[in-house]
Design goal:
The protein is mainly alpha-helical and 100 residues long. The protein has 3 helices and no strands. The chain has helices spanning 2-27, 35-39, 53-86.
Length: 100
């Protein structure tokens, strides 16, 4: 059971920086309003990373979001599996299993 708990903690330390990176990646993208660059007083129609950077940022955002989603699903399954191995004796978390 310690293995599943450890996997869950490792996934947590991967998911948190990945989520922060994804937030920053979304904020630097150029949208209709200019994104974060336009909000800070920069030119809303231009990108400091070049004219084709928008396509690359969009692809990278999609890939990071897919990885984040898959890792989140794996983490949920590891937590559920560790909980079942423990026997489900965790107080408030046991409320959902009253019918079993």
């Amino acid at each position: 059971m310690l293995v599943w708990t450890t996997i869950s903690w490792v996934l947590n330390f991967i998911l948190l920086p990945l989520a922060a990176f994804m937030i920053l990646l979304i904020l630097i993208q150029r949208g209709k309003g200019g994104g974060l660059i336009g909000a800070l007083g920069g030119a809303g129609g231009s990108s400091p990373f070049g004219s084709r950077a928008g396509d690359q940022f969009t692809r990278l955002t999609i890939y990071v979001a897919i990885v984040w989603l898959l890792l989140t699903m794996i983490q949920v399954k590891t937590i559920q599996y560790a909980y079942r191995l423990e026997g489900g004796n965790r107080g408030a978390m046991n409320m959902g299993n009253q019918g079993e």
